[in-house]
TrEMBL record:
Keywords, sorted A to Z: Cell membrane, Membrane, Transmembrane, Transmembrane helix
Transmembrane segments: 21-42, 280-305, 333-355, 367-387
Listed PANTHER family: ABC TRANSPORTER PERMEASE YTRF, MEMBRANE COMPONENT OF TRANSPORTER-RELATED
Membrane topology: Multi-pass membrane protein
InterPro entries: ABC3_permease_C (IPR003838), MacB_PCD (IPR025857), Macrolide_Exporter_MacB (IPR050250)
Protein name (database record): ABC transport system permease protein
Organism (species): Desulfofundulus luciae
Length: 405
């Protein structure tokens, strides 16, 4: 008996017991669908994190004041060791593509009768390049605006939505930031939420010199963004920045740095590693339901062997070998799981799309997850179908013919 004939027999067996076959496959369908959905959720989360980190800038190093792992702020512990001169010195290092200092503060904005609170950031035109953030109207401010400490501003979309009537072009209008008048020269395209869920569009960019001299009255910057020319040069650039700032800040010997440099590529690698572990964990949990479906398949196959004992005896009596009987039931179990696996893949893909639309969670179905699920369902079919098939092949023909239910 060849494989094609075994396949025909298996299909006829499944058709003869449609409801039982469907209920048997249901466990496989749920298991495969669960694996697909869990992996798609993990992949979607990974892609969202990568996109959010990329929105902060590629090949990006961020220099913070203080020796900790982040910016140190507040009156009780302010460490304001970074200056515009530091940023200009860093820009002169080799393998550095762009440098943009930041001096942020929260401020009240007003236009006509509308008021709104947003994050106002003093920076340079390089910020737009580093963040790859196009303007939807007008333009970003220029180097001349920095040198003259011009009272100009570039607005994020959320600010525009909350200060202006729909359809209004803000370019050329005058808004007040903490009661100081600023001319709007540009509007940024929508950017979305940051990695920590902050609305990146609720921002106003102004020249850093304006922020220092006219808005905040300080002579430092809060952080410095540094974009390396290539991913491979980031370690070299980071080392160069550390050496340069230690020299400029007169940090000698084994004394602790009064700054710290963070590499966003390493943050991305850590985030991807974490999501990969979470995806594997979720897929493992989902795979348990697939194993349960496999056990259900084995039970049904054992029942089928019992029900068809006389049929097995007759076939053995007319010449069927043990391998013929074993292959017949093995193919039947395999077909059962493969059909369930294909149905589960379709249900999983549909479920991923439904979850994405219903909850707004990003999902991404990969070819890898589909092949993994299909392969796993086939393995489950062979593994859990082998014992019933072996039991059927091991029946004594005479005892099988005598069998009565």
């Amino acid at each position: 008996m060849n494989f094609i004939h075994n396949l025909e027999v298996a299909m006829n067996g499944l058709k003869a017991n449609k409801m039982r076959s469907f209920l048997t496959m249901l466990g496989i369908i749920i298991g495969v669908a669960a694996v697909i959905i869990m992996i798609s959720l993990g992949q979607g989360a990974s892609k969202r994190i990568a996109g959010q980190i990329a929105s902060m800038g590629s090949n990006l190093l961020i220099v913070f004041p203080g020796a900790g792992q982040g910016p140190v702020r507040g009156a009780s512990g302010s460490v304001n060791t970074l200056t515009l001169e530091d940023a200009e010195a860093i820009a002169g290092l080799s393998m550095v593509a762009h440098v943009a200092p930041e001096l942020p503060t929260n401020a009240t904005l007003s236009y006509a009768s509308q008021t709104w609170t947003a994050r106002v950031v003093g920076t340079t035109p390089e910020m737009q390049v580093i963040k790859d953030w196009p303007v939807s109207a007008g333009s970003f401010f220029t180097g001349d605006d920095i040198r003259s400490a011009a009272m100009v501003a570039v607005l994020g979309k959320t600010v525009v939505d909350n200060l202006y009537l729909p359809g209004t072009n803000p370019v050329g209008s005058t808004i007040r930031i903490n009661k100081l008048p600023f001319t709007v020269v540009g509007v940024l395209a929508p950017k979305g939420a940051s990695l920590i869920g902050e609305d990146q569009d609720n921002v106003v960019y102004i020249p850093v010199s304006t922020a220092q001299k006219r808005l905040m009255g300080v002579n430092y910057v809060r952080l410095i963004n540094v974009q390396a020319e290539t991913p491979e040069s980031m370690d070299l650039v980071q080392s160069s920045i550390e050496n340069l700032l230690r020299e400029r800040h007169h940090v000698a010997g084994t004394s602790s740095d009064d700054f710290n440099v963070r590499n966003l590529t390493s943050v991305l690698e850590t985030a991807e590693s974490t999501t990969a572990v979470m995806t594997l964990l979720l897929a493992s949990v989902a795979a348990v339901s697939l194993l349960v479906g496999g056990i259900g398949t084995m039970n049904i196959m054992l029942v089928s062997v019992t029900e068809r004992t006389r049929e097995i005896g007759l076939r053995m009596a007319v010449g069927a070998t043990e391998s013929n009987i074993r292959n017949q039931f093995l193919v039947e179990a395999l077909v059962l799981c493969l059909i369930g696996g294909v149905a589960g893949i379709l249900v999983g893909i549909a479920g991923s799309k439904i979850i994405s639309k219903a909850f707004g969670w990003p999902t991404f179905v990969t070819v890898y997850s589909v092949l993994l699920s299909a392969g796993f369902s086939a393995v489950v079919g062979v593994f859990f179908g082998y014992y019933p098939a072996k039991k059927a092949a091991g029946l004594d023909p005479i005892e099988a013919l005598r069998f009565e239910r």
